Amino acid sequence: MTSLREGNTPVVKREDYAAPAFLVDSVDLCFDLDPAKTRVLNKMRLRRNPAVAAQPLRLDGEDLNLARVLVNGEGSSFKLEGKQLVLEKLPEGEEPFELEIFTTCAPAKNSKLMGLYVSQGTFFTQCEAEGFRRITYFLDRPDVMASYQVTLRADKAAYPVLLSNGNLVEQGDLDDGRHYARWVDPHKKPCYLFALVAGQLVAREQRIRSRSGGEHLLQVYVRPGDLDKTEHAMNSLMASIAWDEARFGLPLDLERFMIVATSDFNMGAMENKGLNIFNTKYVLANPATATDADYAGIESVVGHEYFHNWTGNRVTCRDWFQLSLKEGLTVFRDQEFSMDMAGSVSARAVKRIEDVRVLRSAQFPEDAGPMAHPVRPDQYAEINNFYTVTIYEKGSEVVRMQQTLVGREGFARGMKLYFERHDGQAVTCDDFAQAIADANPDSELARLLPQFKRWYSQAGTPRLHASGYFDAEARRYTLTLGQSCPATPGQPSKKAFVIPVALGLLDAQGREIEGSARTVVLSETSQTVVFEGIDAAPVPSILRGFSAPVILEHDSSDAELLTLLAHDSDPFNRWEAGQRLALRRALAAVQSADAVHQPLDAAYLDAMRAILRAPELDAAFKELVLTLPGEGYIAEQLDEVDPQRIHAVREAMREQLAHALQEDWIQAFEAHQDNGAFRPDPVSSGRRALAGLALNMLCLAARENGNPVWPGKALQRFKDAGNMTDRVNALSALVGSGSALAQPALERFHALFKGEELVLDKWFALQAGAPDRGGNILPLVKQLMQHPDFHLRNPNRARSLIFSYCNANPGAFHRVDAAGYRFWSERVLEIDAFNPQVAARLARALDRWKKLAEPYRSAAREAIARVAAKADLSNDVREVVTRALA
Ligand code: PHE
Ligand code: ZN
């Protein structure tokens, strides 16, 4: 499907999709596992696709040594064309034939972590998106679904556990200390869902009986020694199974469901059928090593991968342009799952706010930058570059809007129809939306479906313009809603979207005006909403619950925002009002010509104090309200970005909050101490979060007045914390305030957790992400690269140090001397030589360079050009830098 070129990389286009010329009925794989040289025998039954004109069979392969090809048991002629194996002389007609391919590969040398690789002596696979071709020659595309049987053979002492998809049907010993296992997957699947694992592992096991009466064996495999960290993952898995049955009527369709953890993984986790492979980060947790955020991450990722079993595996994608069909939908499902698990209205809102924060701080910039692409992209050079926040998080919002337009029950009906129609098929985003609409023929979604689907085809974040007019005489309030969407690469003009806008009106005292709440469906460029019988100018609460992934432009007064912050019945908009108040002040300070000085006024500080003191509000919610918008989010609001100025302003705001609210921070810290056993539930994690923020603020305040009391308390808490959340919060309070006690605490932390990989990641990340004071962070990062515990080839470790610095610490990364950018370009090139996928993610750190003020802008362009100048870049990095420079 290679047609055009971008730079010098081939581009794949969605419009070029053609059905496969051959179908694979069954695959019988036999592996002789050896780290240096693994032998793979692949016996397939294939047939010509009767719907497609006769043509040669072209199989994908990469980094394979081909030994032999047999067709129906006989030697056959073949050609190697580029990376493809081409067979021209195959049996005519529609009868199935047998194709045997014998290859070898070198898993120990596989540093890309795609295909078959070795991590700490254990074999793992990663096949999505196009890794299966690194295991054997195959029609490596998701619309080719086949039945798999797999035989694994390996040394028994070194690899006692042999796993693959489906059910274990046979196992036994062989000669020479080897043994074997045979697995049969009862479900057809695309090859990207194939998996095997072989090594020294132990499992936590759980037998369950599901609602429908089926019995299942659940297993969580980890390295010996990690078993005490698997309870939360297992609980999350059981909860996911119960939830999918209860909410969507989707049962577990396997007798056995396995999760295996590995320390070397490019992404979070992978939904291979019946054999999910996870980054250890999303499996391992105990109170001493994992934070509340880690616990929440595990719950959502375990849920996410489990939910893929239906949304992704039973119904998969026709081609990779449809990636959001499974990812957007499955993120939506995991978000709903986490919300349902959270329970209370307030805890649900906290989860929603956290999800929106990710969307706005990561996806909005992506949608405004050189890598902007529709939820269903039209082209790519490297599919690995399209596992993006747009496909995932915006994709989820697009599914959420469908639920909003048809209602919760209507959406469940739509899901049911989707599976009735498409179970066992490889389909498109259109098929999904069609099913939801068809199950709800009287809905707004059905009425507006072709227009609604622009969310799949048009990139860019729409602006929602709102303005209100109150006519006292007529007792009428008129709200005018309008929309527009900026150009994105390749899409100069946009058509109107369908935007569900949840809203309501408050009276001047902040009481909800009865009957005013509604969801307006904006489908024109401009529409008015009229409210009759309104006695006084109301305060509109617009885009409640963040009902659409848009930027709301409404110039509400400070007074209105303060009313919303204090009273809105919608917790999301309460939080949002606080963010807007802070943002307004941040932008004013950034844009003023004066030196940065006390950006916050009494009205804002009083409002924050009131929130902190409000007895009816949950701690988790308070922590979110009291956290200022991030530097990246502030930067997005500006046409020209001076990262140092933004950093200085935000730091000044933090210090002001710290000082002005000191008494309340002390109160908050002291009122949120829990001494009982650690539980990661929303209430206690919220209490820890607020206590942690309070401690941070108190140390920050102490920094100026030199008072040693709070740093001393933080150190004490760091030492005797009963869980990792409190410990890391105390440590970051010391590090974040530049306390002299930070260094000894860091040393102690390292000594305490020497053998704990995931905790060491935190240790590196905390230092690389610390506020820069006089340019000290880059030299520290360089020095930490020399630390014996630093391993660039381990993705988690590389992320913890390099990404924490380049992608998450703008105040330290954007240096006037350009040294941060030089460091970045060196690391991109260094990593690209062994792991292009990870390198390409790092390469995105300078996506927004065109917005930078001088001298940053020129220096950033130069750094990107330096990367682009390298002749033998991977497709992955080439695509990112080519787009950035375009
Ligand atoms: N499909 C995985 C998920 O979202 C992500 C993934 C993609 C993992 C590619 C590995 C490689 O659940
Ligand atoms: Zn996924």
TrEMBL record:
Q: Which SUPFAM superfamilies match?
A: Leukotriene A4 hydrolase N-terminal domain, Metalloproteases ('zincins'), catalytic domain
Q: Which reaction does it catalyse?
A: Release of an N-terminal amino acid, Xaa-|-Yaa- from a peptide, amide or arylamide. Xaa is preferably Ala, but may be most amino acids including Pro (slow action). When a terminal hydrophobic residue is followed by a prolyl residue, the two may be released as an intact Xaa-Pro dipeptide
Q: Which residues form the Peptidase M1 membrane alanine aminopeptidase domain?
A: 233-444
Stored Pfam families: DUF3458 (PF11940), DUF3458_C (PF17432), Peptidase_M1 (PF01433), Peptidase_M1_N (PF17900)
Record keywords: Aminopeptidase, Hydrolase, Metal-binding, Metalloprotease, Protease, Zinc
Name the Gene Ontology biological process terms. Answer: proteolysis
Q: Which GO terms describe its molecular function?
A: alanyl aminopeptidase activity; metallopeptidase activity; zinc ion binding
Q: Which residues are in the Peptidase M1 alanyl aminopeptidase C-terminal domain?
A: 558-886
Question: Which EC numbers does the record give?
Answer: 3.4.11.2
Aminopeptidase N-like N-terminal domain location, by residue?
86-193
Q: Which residues form the Peptidase M1 alanyl aminopeptidase Ig-like fold domain?
A: 460-554
Name its co-factor(s): Zn(2+)
Family in the record = Belongs to the peptidase M1 family.
Q: Which PANTHER family match?
A: PUROMYCIN-SENSITIVE AMINOPEPTIDASE
What function does the entry list? Aminopeptidase N is involved in the degradation of intracellular peptides generated by protein breakdown during normal growth as well as in response to nutrient starvation.
This chain belongs to which protein, by name? Aminopeptidase N
Q: Which organism is it from?
A: Malikia granosa
